[in-house]
Structure formats: C-alpha cells, structure tokens
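Long-time lurker. I teach an intro course on protein structure, and each term I like to show students one example going from raw sequence to a predicted 3D structure in token notation. This year I'd like something fresh instead of my usual example. Would anyone be willing to generate the tokens for the chain below so I can use it in lecture? Attribution to the forum is fine with me.
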Amino acid sequence: MTHVGIRNTFLMPTGIHFGGVMVTAAPSFASDVDRVPDEFHTYWQALEKPPVRRARAACQALLGFDPVPTPEQVLRFGRGHYDTDPTAEAFVAEVYDVLGTVEGRRMLDTVLDEGLAAVADPPPSLVALMAELTEEPEWLDWELLERGAKVLRGFGPAVASSAGSGTLLAYTESSIAKPLSLTGAYAGVSALRRFMETQRHTFDISDPGGMRQGAAGWKSSARVRVMHVFLRRRIAAHTEWDTAAWGQPINQSDAEMTLLSGSVVMALSMRAIGHPVTRRDIEALMHLWRYVGHVMGVRPRWYPQTVREAVQLTLVYFLKRTYSAGGEGIELIESYLPAFRPQPGTGWRRRIRDEVNYRVQIGYTRYWLPGSFYRSHDMPFAWPWALHPLLQIPGNLAVGVARKMNSRVDSAVDRLARSRREAWFSREMDGQESRFSAREQFRR
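-- Reply from a regular --
Happy to contribute to a lecture. Here you go:
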C-alpha cells in the first residue's frame, strides 16, 4: 500500500500561470490538511494547453466569466480528497467494532426508526452522529429543497438511466474505478442490484418529505453514510490503493462531485430529452443534494452556491482526469449494459419486457455518452434504440410546459411519475428491498 507520506508534497508545477498568478515554487506540506493528490498534476498542466486557454478566453469574451474557478477554490477541492467522515468513523469504531456488526446495525436501525431516546445509555459516538444527522444547517431552505425533490421525481425512471450512463465516464479514473473493482460491487452479476440500490436512495430522497427526519430518504442517507465507513476502511487498507495519488477512498471531494452529478449534470441530461428545466430548477436540485450530502456526512470545504460555480467545479474534475483506470475501468464500463439483459429461465412475458427494457437502456446510454467513448468500448449495437430518447423530446416538452401552466396537471403528472418509477424499480428488483449494507468481502 502507498501510505500518505513526505513524497506527496506536490501542490502545483513550478513556473505555471494559475488563475492569472505566476506560481514560482511548489510548497511542501506536513499534513493531509494542506495536501492535494498527485493526480492534480494533470489539472494544472491542462490549464496551459492551447485549446483550454482558447476556450477560457472565448468564454470570458462571450459570456463574461472565467469557466475556471479561483485558485483558492481549486485548492479547497483538491485538499478535500483527504477529508473523510470522522463522526461516522468514530461510531463504527465504538459500536460495530466492539459490539459486532449485527448489534451495530440493530442499534443504528433503532435510533433511525425511534430516535435517540429508544437506546438505553447511548454511546457518545452515537449521540454525536445523531446530532449531525438531525442538524438543520442555517442555509437549509425546506421550500427550495422540496422544489428540487419535485423536479427530480418528475423525471421518472429516466434519472436512473442518466445516472448510470454518466457514471461510465468516471470509470476511466482509478480513484473511482479502484474502490468498485476491489469490492466487486459494480461488475459482473452484482452490477444490476448495486445500481438499483443506488437508485432506491435517489427515489427515497426525492419523495415528498423524503428528507425529513425519520423519512425513508433521510434514513437511507444515514445508512449509506455508515456503509461508506466500512468500504473506506477496507479500500484504504488494500495494497492497491494509492493514497498519495488519489487521496482517501470515498473522500469529501469525490462525494461532492456525486452530488453535482445528481443535480447539475442530471438536469442538463434531462434537458437533452426535452424536459424544460429552468435555472431555478437546477438550483433547487443543487439544494436538495447539498442537504442529502449533509446528512451523509458530505461537508466539503467548498460547495458551489450557483449553477455557474457548479459548472466551474465540474470543469476542474474533467481537466484533472488521468484516464488511468485501465482494465478495471473497462470491466466496469462494459459490465453496465449487460446487467440489464434478460436472465435465462424467465417466462415469456417477463422476457419480452426485459428485452425491451434492455434496449431502452442501450438507447439512453448511447444518446448521452460521447460517440467516441461508446465506440471505443465493447458496447451493444445501439441503433435504432438511440433514437428513443430523441423521440421523447416533444412529449416531455409539452408535459413540462403544461405542468408549469396548470397546477392540476402538475399534481397529476407528479403522481404518475412517482408511480412509474416505483413500478420500474419493483420490476428490476423482483420485489426485493434494498438494505444499503456494506459488503463483507473483496473480490480479491
């Protein structure tokens, strides 16, 4: 295993213009607080590439702002790769490690279902965890959050396809692909179930009142938070995890990008299939996911306050990409669509339904992914299924406009969207429920 050590002292290349400032030296840091992963070499190098410089100049001239955030914001994001979740980690150490997994899960379920008073003599770490889970930060606006939830559930089951397709682009990065590869959670036969558990969480948090204390979204967010502690421990202890290059597993900054993927990136992908998503809708989605992240222990050093800042941070992520995942990333990418194939031995009615759904997923994936990316992997032939999202545009646009003009239509469509996604989830899971429990074994 590569441990955090003195070799990870790189901040930025010597002699590079960064945000208009000439950096003449690379400071060294003694702790994780001021450290950034080695992968950020790529970001600062990318800023000096002629295409990036031209694009920045064009954006400044045409739109009046720099698409690259300030150096301070970038450093906050970079340093956040070494930030984790001390409160949840302390709870796992005091409860799960001492009392065992079964008792730890029982205590967590009890306190989430019935409150802290239901646990006799609760351990200090549980008290601290519940204080964070029940905290309502000063910036929280419930009206804006519920608007974001309504926008999200209005997209129906298409959000799952969008999330799945977008994630494939992240699988080129070792820091993302390695944890999934080591746990075996998103490759092979387990890919569909793990993907569907993620979508269950998305559905729960976007139900009306889903993020209120005691509601399904709030509870599943807390369970995912604890699950991440187990995964982080196992991954960090593995010999293949490179802390200097990638930071800590499941760190604050990577989690922050997941929140933006569920809000800004999701909204833009829904626009691409005709949903009339406004800027205010996107801000509401960002607010929803920010609070979801807050409950999950995601409290980054810098969280974008506007759509513009979110786009800037997303650009940082794409510029720092190293495409280093290799075969592990390829396996994850190429396991995604086959997971939707009909299973042998199913009845003819279900097989027909599964065949249709499989092709729908192919169509969405090809529609949202860059053509060069899709063609560079072993992916199913996409035509004519790639036309399916395109054909939805007129209907989605008409319904979206009608919702904004008529409250009765809005309410009816909201109920229909919730019904559709629940039916979709039930079909894919064969009626099984998600538990959001940590995997006990590594694939290797």
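Some talking points for your students: DSSP finds 20 helices and two strands in the chain. Residues 407-429 form the longest helix (23 residues).
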